[in-house]
Amino acid sequence: MQHFTRMTVRKEASLVRFAVKEDLKPVNSKLDHPLLKKPRKKEPDFPQLAETDLVRHYYRLARLNFSWEDGLYPLGSCTMKYNPLLNEAVAAEPAFNALHPALPAEHSQGALQIIVETEKMITQLLDLAHVTLAPAAGAHGELTGTMMMRAWFEAKNDKRKYILIPDSAHGTNPASAAMAGFEVKKIAVRPNGTTDLDSLKKALDHETAALMLTNPNTMGIFENEIHEIKKLLDSVGALLYMDGANLNAIVGRVSLGKMGVDLTQLNLHKTFSTPHGGGGPGQGALGVSERMLPFLPGPQLRENAGKIEFFNPEKSIGRIKGSYGQFGNILRAWSYILRWGNQTREISGRAVLNSTYIRKKLGGVLTPASDLPSMHETVYSEKPLKDRGLTTVNLAKALLDRGFYAPTIYFPLNVPGAIMVEPTETESKEELDLFIETVRSIMTEDPEKIRQSPQNAPVIKIDETSAARNPRLSWRM
Length: 477
Ligand SMILES: Cc1ncc(COP(=O)(O)O)c(C=O)c1O
Prior knowledge:
By secondary structure, the chain is of the alpha/beta class. Helices cover 38% and strands 11% of the residues. It contains 19 helices and twelve strands. A seven-stranded mixed beta sheet has the order 1-7-6-5-4-2-3, sandwiched between helices. Strands 10-12-11 form a three-stranded antiparallel beta sheet, with helices on one face. Strands 8-9 form a two-stranded antiparallel ribbon.
């Protein structure tokens, strides 16, 4: 039914003269429905717009967005991966989506069973002691983990002040460490993108709580010296926190237990295809080693005599969020993991293959920032662009003009003008070839023409600093 607001209807009605003869008019044109008997006396305070105008407005806005459905979305680090429709069908099941989040455990055993199963499957994939789905996002998992580290040292009356974080880390790492009350010490990154162990040795002391290491790191490179790193940390009683956001590059292939990881947060959207919570309200996960179990946030879930119940771990840091997990997202991850079954290593295999394919085919056109093999994403340097009088932004805008989303640019910070390309595992060879051809043609076209991009985007050239610092938000087109 269309809802025209009264203003629209009244204005139009005064212009209309119906040419209907008196004797044809109905005796009583009033509909006999109880809801129509007592019309409201006061106009509700709604914007005076017709539904058609609204629908068209939002549809127009939606078309300004670039989405995965439009084509390759190679946004490194943020991982815009395809979320299979099966996930949506499972999450839309009325038996699931009509559940009230405050139902007591005895009335939501089926839902809790799915949460516990998901936690168990991810625990197995990580090879750690436990995974909790309590956190609302990757960054929230980091905060939960850093709070647990603080509680772990406090329980031993061991005063620790610092968390060490490599230069290439995601900004949420230092933010989480600071929010949990630690000071951050920066660790240098070698030119090849790996953590500089000399810098780590220099920074380590008995005031160090942990190293927060992303692995594979934000250069897309696996930290192969992880055993040496672990030994160094053990020598001062510090913990190994792994930012596991990039698990999609290693899932099904690497044991985090064998790497000596004490805590790791996962971003379910990157590996297990849930919508991105962007810091929350989405779904994160936190994996922990045996010694961290008593400090997990409360409540946690466990099976007891055939039933699932909530309990508070012995030295819990307490509640980190209103309800346990974001069930709709857990369902999506659950269905995604079960769909892959025992083939989850295919996820990482294909992600690395696709990224490596682009890297090889772009040889001589773009230069990887590191000579080491990259995994699910590759960071390229700005040098070949600079040589042609272009910048990283020019390449990004030229890609937008040619129907691709732009890669992540100027991150990680240790690579000036970085271009970070992550194709994900679901892209076909044809789509990758199209992207490669497009980058190649941009790199050979007249630089002056490339500098004019974007010409086909809804917004042409903006002053990006002012747009970020001083946005003028408007509904006007
Ligand atoms: C390496 C890394 N760590 C942490 C995060 C933060 O995760 P989230 O956006 O889920 O809060 C991200 C973002 O995707 C990331 O790439």
